[in-house]
From TrEMBL:
<feature type="transmembrane region" description="Helical">
    <location>
        <begin position="12"/>
        <end position="35"/>
    </location>
</feature>
<feature type="transmembrane region" description="Helical">
    <location>
        <begin position="94"/>
        <end position="119"/>
    </location>
</feature>
<feature type="transmembrane region" description="Helical">
    <location>
        <begin position="55"/>
        <end position="73"/>
    </location>
</feature>
<feature type="transmembrane region" description="Helical">
    <location>
        <begin position="139"/>
        <end position="156"/>
    </location>
</feature>
<feature type="transmembrane region" description="Helical">
    <location>
        <begin position="220"/>
        <end position="238"/>
    </location>
</feature>
<dbReference type="Pfam" id="PF12679">
    <property type="entry name" value="ABC2_membrane_2"/>
</dbReference>
<dbReference type="InterPro" id="IPR019860">
    <property type="entry name" value="Motility-assoc_ABC_perm_GldF"/>
</dbReference>
<keyword id="KW-0812">Transmembrane</keyword>
<dbReference type="InterPro" id="IPR051449">
    <property type="entry name" value="ABC-2_transporter_component"/>
</dbReference>
<feature type="transmembrane region" description="Helical">
    <location>
        <begin position="163"/>
        <end position="181"/>
    </location>
</feature>
<keyword id="KW-0472">Membrane</keyword>
<keyword id="KW-1133">Transmembrane helix</keyword>
<keyword id="KW-1003">Cell membrane</keyword>
<protein>
    <submittedName>
        <fullName>Gliding motility-associated ABC transporter permease subunit GldF</fullName>
    </submittedName>
</protein>
């Protein structure tokens, strides 16, 4: 598993694509937070990072599929998946090696955003008076969200040898998980109780809960359950494709 992990990290950063993806993520956040008038933190009148935690999930919808789309699709396309399957590795070791590598890349893309926290904290009327606990909870929520999107992206890459198709499937699935259930819950025909449970099935419900600074075990269990389920589907898809080959 460690060998696969190192291979994925090296492969991602050995080309300009990896650097461009992370730079674009940071650039997009920077433009929305400090340049564009509708979301400009400097014009908001109070020191917080709420716009970051509202915008980052939407940017993640494009960034993470771009990171994960080649994980398995390139292996299938180049024919190296058959070679990899002959190594003394279990299906879980292959899946987890690629998953943790992509999750680490997502974490690396998040680390520079701490600069935003430092900048806003220093620009506040009372430097250092920001709600550090709430921001820490929001970062935990964003990390769990990114980890979940990564698991979905890994699964999407395991079902096709076309990286572009994997990207599109990942974007669509992440979007459905993030906003689809919430949108369905607002249908009048579902009002009266079932709408609440439908909301709970979506990622945004649990992400927004954690982003308020409240770390609820139910939200943590939800994220880990979705991650585990998607990784299980990835393992099943991987075994089926190897068997068919």
């Amino acid at each position: 598993m460690l060998a696969i992990f190192k291979k994925e990290i090296h492969q991602f950063f050995s080309s300009i694509t990896g650097y461009v993806a992370i730079i674009l993520f940071l650039l997009a956040n920077g433009l929305f937070l400090f340049v564009f008038s509708d979301t400009n933190l400097l014009d908001a009148g109070y020191a917080n990072l709420d716009p970051l935690f509202e915008l980052a999930p939407l940017i993640f919808l494009l960034l993470i599929p771009a990171i994960t789309m080649r994980s398995f699709s390139e292996e299938f396309k180049s024919g190296t998946m058959e070679l990899l399957s002959t190594k003394p590795l279990t299906g879980w070791q292959i899946v987890l090696g690629k998953y943790w590598a992509c999750a680490l890349i997502v974490l690396i893309s998040l680390i520079p955003t701490f600069i935003y926290y430092i900048a806003v904290s220093q620009l506040a009327a009372q430097p250092g008076a920001m709600d550090t606990g709430g921001i820490a909870g929001s970062y935990i929520g964003l990390l769990l969200l990114g980890s979940t999107f990564t698991a979905i992206g890994i699964w999407a890459s395991s079902i096709t040898s076309n990286a572009v198709v994997a990207f599109l499937v990942s974007v669509f699935t992440c979007y459905i998980f993030y906003t689809g259930f919430d949108a369905l819950s607002k249908l009048p025909v579902l009002a009266g109780g079932f709408d609440y449970y439908l909301q709970m099935a979506g990622i945004s419900f649990h992400y927004n809960s954690i982003s308020r600074g409240v770390i609820d075990s139910r939200d943590i269990i939800y994220f880990f359950s979705v991650i585990g389920f998607m990784l299980y589907l990835t393992k099943v898809s991987l075994q089926r494709r190897i068997w068919q080959a």
